[in-house]
């Protein structure tokens, strides 16, 4: 019995060709981000319609750098707890205070009503996650940011190719952070990117470029200056070359994911499952089941891999505080991700639907 994987990057021959070109060139990486990295940034900005993009080596690096652009020391950042832990770590690493808001039970994205309740004099940034690829309610969130003079940084790790109000995700917030981890819709060995929409995007881009490469600035030939600390966060040429090929296919691959999501939504007999929305990239398709361990075991026994996204961040010991998030906590005990990648055959999709209906 061959196993149905939860995630599986889609490849055709183009990625292999791209990698061979990088290998043969002997130019594998540059802190300055020239070569394929610069090309990928340009193409990604054009794709999402943003002013500029800075490529980095992970979604985590993108979040860390994006938050470092605002002085959040002892300031509050409002975010959902239902996310990968990097979203909150980025706040802590920049000296900020993560404030977790509850989510909407239908979308599993941060609930604007809950955001409003948590705004204080210390709030500086709203950090929504487009959970599973479904965009958060950016209309309301942008309104809240405007009314309260707050910045909007988006965690779009799941949302390569998602859209909101006819614009690609990456075009809305001040800074939008993507992940190109191999499980993501746009897959690289490792990678991330910050999409920039601020008026002063040129200045922001320059600072971000410095920060992603150890603070190196004013580079002229072999001389340079260092005015601030920075990290080794730059993207390598292999990732960028693969990314360029993956970007060409992204919309088509997301359309395949949407077709599967439509079928799941129609044929899975569960009250609680991810909604169908053509704006979602469907990085994940989630369902909610009562006896989760039993369900996952039965799925595994018939060769279907499932996952849990996520254990809420505020339930980890370092983030445990006394605030309760009733919807997040209820959902966290029931949520299961089922396979939805473009490599699934029709037979496998049917098997997944039948198995979910049988075992849930
Ligand atoms: C919501 C979310 N944010 C951030 C990240 C971090 O991305 P990366 O793994 O590329 O560092 C991930 C990756 O799983 C994620 O799912």
UniProtKB/TrEMBL annotation:
- The coiled-coil regions, if any, are none
Which InterPro entries does its entry note?
Answer: DegT/StrS_aminotransferase, PyrdxlP-dep_Trfase, PyrdxlP-dep_Trfase_major, PyrdxlP-dep_Trfase_small
Q: Which domain of life is it from?
A: Archaea
Name a biological process GO annotation.
polysaccharide biosynthetic process
Tell me if Ribosomal protein is a UniProt keyword of this record: no
* Keywords, alphabetical: Aminotransferase, Pyridoxal phosphate, Transferase
List the GO molecular function terms: pyridoxal phosphate binding; transaminase activity
CDD domains in the cross-refs: AHBA_syn
* Similarity-based family: Belongs to the DegT/DnrJ/EryC1 family.
This protein's name: Glutamine--scyllo-inositol aminotransferase
- Which organism's genome codes for this protein? Nitrosopumilus ureiphilus
């Amino acid at each position: 019995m061959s196993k149905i994987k939860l995630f599986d990057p889609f490849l055709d021959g183009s990625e292999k060709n791209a990698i061979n070109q990088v290998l043969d060139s002997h130019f594998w990486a540059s802190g300055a981000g020239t070569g394929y990295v610069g090309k990928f940034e340009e193409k990604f900005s054009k794709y999402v319609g943003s002013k500029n993009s800075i490529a980095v080596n992970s979604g985590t690096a993108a979040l860390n750098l994006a938050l470092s652009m605002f002085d959040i020391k002892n300031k509050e950042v409002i975010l959902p707890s239902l996310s990968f832990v990097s979203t909150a770590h980025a706040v802590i690493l920049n000296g900020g205070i993560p404030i977790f808001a509850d989510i909407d039970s239908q979308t599993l994205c941060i609930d604007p009503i809950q955001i409003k309740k948590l705004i204080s004099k210390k709030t500086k940034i709203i950090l929504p996650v487009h959970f599973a690829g479904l965009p958060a309610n950016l209309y309301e969130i942008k309104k809240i940011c405007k009314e309260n003079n707050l910045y909007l940084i988006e965690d779009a790790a799941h949302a390569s190719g998602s859209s909101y109000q006819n614009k690609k995700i990456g075009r809305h917030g001040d800074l939008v952070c993507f992940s190109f981890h191999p499980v993501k819709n746009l897959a690289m060995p490792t990678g991330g990117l910050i999409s920039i929409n601020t008026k002063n995007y040129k200045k922001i881009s320059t600072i971000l470029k410095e920060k992603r490469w150890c603070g190196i600035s004013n580079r002229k030939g072999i001389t340079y200056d260092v005015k601030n600390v920075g990290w080794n966060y730059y993207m390598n040429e292999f990732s960028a070359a693969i990314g360029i090929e993956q970007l060409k296919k992204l919309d088509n691959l997301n359309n395949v994911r949407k077709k599967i999501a439509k079928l799941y939504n129609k044929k899975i007999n569960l009250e609680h499952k991810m909604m169908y929305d053509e704006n979602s990239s469907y990085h994940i398709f989630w369902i909610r089941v009562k006896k989760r361990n039993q369900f996952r075991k039965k799925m595994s026994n018939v060769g279907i891999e499932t996952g849990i996204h996520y254990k809420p961040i505020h339930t980890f010991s370092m983030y445990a505080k006394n605030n309760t998030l009733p919807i997040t906590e209820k959902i966290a005990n029931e949520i299961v991700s089922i396979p939805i990648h473009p490599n699934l055959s029709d037979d496998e999709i049917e098997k997944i639907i039948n198995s979910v209906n049988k075992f849930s």
